[in-house]
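Side project, low priority. Logging it here so it doesn't get lost.
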Amino acid sequence: MSKALSRPVDRVMARELRGGEFKRQDSHFREWVGVHPQSGQPGLPVSAGRYHLYVSLACPWCHRTAIVRELAGLGEAVPISYVAPFRDEHGWAFTGERFEDGPGGSYIDPLNGWKLMSEAYLASDPGYDARVTVPVLWDTQNKRIVNNESSDIIRMFAASDSLGGLGEKDAKLDLYPPALRANIDEVNLRVYDTINNGVYNAGFARLQGAYERAFKRLFESFAWLEELLGKQRYLLGEQITEADWRLFPTLVRFDEVYHVHFRCNYRRIVEYPNLWAYTRELYQWPGVAQTVTMDQIKRHYYTTHDELNPKHIIPLGPAPDWAEPHGRG
């Protein structure tokens, strides 16, 4: 068995925890489909059905790709497969288990018949020796990974050509409009550093000081968002952008997981009136609720991180009312 397939996940993750602070590894595969929105350079050909998305709906980075795929109407153009939410020493796996919450129905790979997500990495780079992550955008023609960076994938999915213009929605989806790009990039940076990745910085910290720094920055950003969303509907004003959909997967997991599991326990999202109403609005967007699989989310976090929850007991609560009217127009 290859090194990348056999090495325990905990040993790989140890690289990201050196010095007591969590340092997420950089994504390895960064090819582009279509024209790159910043460089203007053409990438791989746009072709409906050529690319396949692999995700875990438990994972927030995957969740953003599943949402934008749905919003862009790419259900037929970009098929999707789901790995199981529980990740053991072998990494993300296709267990064959059936599930009822969310789309898909079972954790299988009908395209390649893989048992482990690491097989895609080794097929693309036999020398790959880092942590195997999802999401993965797979090229069915060249038989290799195109991209494993969620921020790239959502930008490709939201491009005006909709991967060949073969999406199911009539309206074009523009989540990264040229006039707002600089501001979107600025907001994305703060949200990623202090919120999306900030909860992990707090949860996986092995030194008190590292935990406290991450904790403080997280709740400073929540206070900033609460004030901002009291003045405008979305992060960049009255138009929803990719910044909102990058933030949402962390917010929707916060009270059920991060507040307890990652010790981010200063306040819950439901205690921020503007932020809570905003989170409910995004949850209630057509097609989004079906991507929120709370059973899978809680199973993943509470049964995967042995260091944080060695008994694998999954909390039953809380149970916020996601259907409550958001009152935001």
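Brief comment: The longest strand covers residues 51-55.
Revisit when time allows.
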